[in-house]
Design goal:
The chain has 81 residues and is of the alpha+beta class. It contains 3 helices and 4 strands. The protein is globular, with a radius of gyration of 12 Å.
Length: 81
Amino acid sequence: MKKILFTSATCGPCFGLKKRIETEKLTVDTLEHNDENRTEFEKYGIRAVPRLVLEDCHGAFVVIQGSDDIIKGIKADVIDK
């Protein structure tokens, strides 16, 4: 399952969440909002951060918000709709 954390360099909640992820020794791909990553943000309809996208091998995905739910999503093995 693909897991992508969408963030921004100027986002306070994103900074706190990244510290929590580091403290809990979790791994997740992270994309910061910039011109280079604009297409990915548009693909998943990301308009606010932080957001976690979980995408399965069939292309089905969910977007998760909220620090506690994002942490649960990073730890998840399957998409829970």
